Amino acid sequence: MRNIQNKLIVLLFITLAFPHPGSSQDSLTNELRYEVNRIYPYISITKEKLNEAHTIIDLNTYYESSWIREYISVELLTSHKGRIKKAVSKNDTLSQEQKDNMNMADLGTDIAVKVQYIPENTLTHNDIKEISFTFTVNPESDAIFSGGQQKLEQYVKDNSIDKISDTSFKKFTLAAIKFTINEEGHIIDAHVFESCKDGKTDELLLETISNMPGWKPAEYSNGSKVKQEFVLLVGDFENCVINLLNIRQD
């Protein structure tokens, strides 16, 4: 009886220690993951936060005021009816003119900020330095697939995911297809941003995106439409390429 138990223990150890011939540690063992995510501008704020902004850091949370010993000027550039308007302040507190220009700026256009300053350091002599950045104001309504998110996921599943071979994606393999929804809700500029290293699968995913039905475009509260960029991600979301995309996953 003890010999039988010992044999069973040895057999169990062998089964656990050595995977079956048909499996691979490099393969994705779970159901193939996929998502369609919006790609956000590097710096963007809501219209509500724009209206409440009083300083540069209210516009750009990455801004480091601790780098500044002395301000030379803060220049803010906006587009109004296609013409560039410039307003200048003496420090990081926004002037009323700068606030007015931002509120009148053409929706969907970049607002540029250029800061000239003397840096905060231990040097006895400092040259004037410059920090510049741009930001956009987010529309109140993002672009949305006709029928909603569930319909979008089902469309992608039916037209590509269900047709992909189980061996196409290994561990850390990711495909990323970037595309833009324009002001009419049409798909433009669809392209492979990250290849899964299988040409047929890349082509299938790209065709799925390119042939999608129309979307409802992104829209501001006044009815103005604007382009928005999205990405279809398929595969292993541990891939570091995701860090290059400014997406916000739930």
Order of helices and strands: HEEHHEEHEEEHEEHEEEE
Tally of helical runs: 6
In the sheet with the most strands, the strands line up as: 2-6-5-3-4
How would you state the average pLDDT, rounded?
88
Q: What fraction of residues sit in β-strands?
A: 25-35%
Instruction: Supply Rg.
Output: 26 Å
Number of strands: 13
What can be said about the biggest beta sheet? 5 strands, mixed
- The rounded distance between the terminal residues' Cα atoms is 55 Å
What level of helicity do the residues show? 10-25%
Tell me the overall shape. Answer: elongated
- Multimeric state: single chain
Low-pLDDT runs: 1-25
Overall structural class, as computed from helix and strand content, comes to alpha+beta
Instruction: Please tell me the total number of domains.
Output: 2
Kindly summarize this structure in a few lines.
The protein is 23% helix and 31% strand. With 250 residues, the chain is α+β, with helices and mostly antiparallel strands.
Walk me through the structure:
- There is one protein chain.
- With 250 residues, this protein is α+β, with helices and mostly antiparallel strands.
- It contains 6 helices and 13 strands.
- The protein has 2 domains: 122 residues, no CATH class; 94 residues, no CATH class.
- The longest helix has 16 residues.
- It starts with a helix and ends in a 15-residue tail after the last strand.
- The N terminus is likely disordered.
